[in-house]
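Quick illustration, no need to memorize.
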Amino acid sequence: MADKVKSGKEILDNFFENIIEIKDVDKDIAQMINTLYQNDKLTDINVKNELQKLREQNDKN
């Protein structure tokens, strides 16, 4: 009964810290999303730009 209720920020922090451990999640994408979240830059534009960079890196390999 004395369980502490987590705030929305605590829930999001925990999710993004552990996103890389979710089954079938691409590790590079998870790391990129976590980094954007940690830097307060998680927007649709930034995600699109970072995904494009990942695609370009994969094309080079």
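Residues 22-60 form one domain.
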